[in-house]
Amino acid sequence: MLRIMAVTKDHELILQPSVEELAEDRIEWYWVDFIDPDDEEIKLLSSYFHFHPLAIEDCLQFLQRPKLEYYQGYSFFVMHALHTQSLAAQEVDLFIGEKFIVSFHYDQLAEMDSTWNYFAGIENFSSIGPIEVGHKIMDKIVDTYFPIVQNIEDHLLDIENNYEKGNKHSLIQQTFDVRSDLLKVRRSIFPMRDLMYRTLESKRLIINENKKAYFHDIYDHLIKLSEMIDSNREMTSDIRDNYISLNSYKMNNIMKTLTVITTIFMPLTFIAGIYGMNFQYMPELKWREGYFFVLGCMLVLGLSMYFWFRKKGWFDQD
What we know:
The protein is an alpha+beta fold. The protein is built from seven helices and seven strands, in the order E-E-E-H-H-E-E-E-E-H-H-H-H-H. The protein has helices spanning 39-47, 53-60, 110-120, 130-161, 168-201, 209-275, 290-311, and strands at residues 2-8, 13-15, 27-35, 67-71, 74-82, 89-97, 100-105. Strands 2-1-3-7-6-5-4 form a seven-stranded mixed sheet, with helices on both faces. Helix 4 runs antiparallel to helix 5, helix 5 runs antiparallel to helix 6 (209-275) and helix 6 packs antiparallel against helix 7. The relative contact order is 0.08.
């Protein structure tokens, strides 16, 4: 599907002109939006717009890393929008020239619809051109990152607040899920930040100083998002390390308790082993009170070792 808007030299908006009308002299600039195009529409990229084969290949091969490339007469942007539920990256490609902007994407994106509706409702296009449309698309895409990252951050804070009273195994599994979500988001936001930095530093993109301030605002947002992601990843690492440390601490206490119990029973087992040998001439074997005496000795020995270990603090849990 194609949707087209064109602005005449009299700064009037024309919605849904034919592709052939775009070449008329009265057209100042135009925006063509490819939405899940069919094969015939895809052919327009080469047959009508004459874009470079490598740029067209990048459009058709999902999923490219966000980037900026320069070709003769236009710049080619690859950007990522994020699905709010699955966090899957959705590629948006932009061809921006002095007299046109062509967007290409396979998914129906709210960011693109919002941008389209915004410009479709403008009456005065005297100070608006392709670079302004490109900026608006980038701004909308980056704006949708914030609720995604903030939802992840809220989930992580809930895990941290419930860590002491919640099911540790369930919470640590949720922590790993959050860490996985952060990694998905990071794969799109960090390259987008680098893309925006390159856009600001570019000498080939014609962006005046007033317009550059708006692009710098997007870059600032991406810097903030990057810091939020890094901070949340550190928090997940802290929760994971605390969980591992707590498990190790509990295991050490269990092993210490079992070691003390084993140590107490070692001399008792030794005594029982001695008197369990069936030699005929062993002393005390025919002593009437020998059985109770040995049991008493074993009990005294066991209690003595228990209280001694307890005095040493070997049974303390802290």
